[in-house]
Amino acid sequence: MRILVAESEPPAAREKRRDSVGRSSGETFLKRLGDLAPDASCDRVKPADRGSRVPDAVGLEGYDAVFLTGSPLHLYEDTPETRREVDFMRAVFQSGTPAFGSCAGLQVAVVAAGGTVRAMQERREAGFARRIARQPAGEGHLLLDGRPPVFDAPAIHTDEVDALPEGARLLASNSVTRVQAAEIRHGNGIFWGVQYHPEISLREVAAALRRQSEDLIEHGLARDEQDVERHAALVEELHRQPDRRDLAWRLGLNEQVTDATARMTELRNFLTHLVLPTRSARGRA
């Protein structure tokens, strides 16, 4: 199996993330895919970077799956970085290669297929998206196979999908963010995506909270940096000791977040239920 990870982070954000957790968003995906598909051959490209070499639609046909990472890019802004990201995703759709994206990865696919993205204004999902529930189109959808009817997931974002493109299916929502999971069919391709982050660990959640502490304070989710640090320290300790029921209780979390296997449900489902059948249909060994 050949997998391509498209890192949506621009260079400065990539290095900032590496400084906090030792990995860029693309490197996190590579680590998770190494666990889920150890025999796969994985490549990484950086579509947002100026001068970066990325495959065109024909080149993308040689892959069995494409993964798009999260990013601080704002897809409603017309910048060279966002244009490069959207152009890459349009080539993915043209190639017919199945694709998955989380957070900004979902937003890139939405814009590439004709939908829109907007800022969340005063609302925030910081740390975890709570009480995500299936919508009618999500009942029985294989992206959510194994998830309970309502669940939490790691999430940090300040932007959201405004309008899904024509023909897309809304799979899951919560009270903060309407589009938490979606399927998009566009051109020759199919995309499954989520606004939350099934790929990140609780240690990475804690680091993201610390990186965004100023924003959390500005929007009234924390009183000061010490407040953010106390909360992040609890999340990080739960990463180290996932069986600590007292910590899970204090954070209001259950095994859907604390158990790594459950946390990666959507990644596993994408590979099992979309990539492998598509690969067989293409006649690949």
From TrEMBL:
Its EC number is 3.4.-.-. InterPro entries: ChyE-like, Class_I_gatase-like, GATASE. Residues 60-205 form the Glutamine amidotransferase domain. Residues 12-21 have a biased composition (Basic and acidic residues). GO terms for molecular function: hydrolase activity. PROSITE patterns: GATASE_TYPE_1. Residues 1-26 are annotated as: Disordered. CDD domains: GATase1_1. The keyword Hydrolase applies. This is Type 1 glutamine amidotransferase. The lineage of its organism: Bacteria, Pseudomonadati, Pseudomonadota, Alphaproteobacteria, Sphingomonadales.
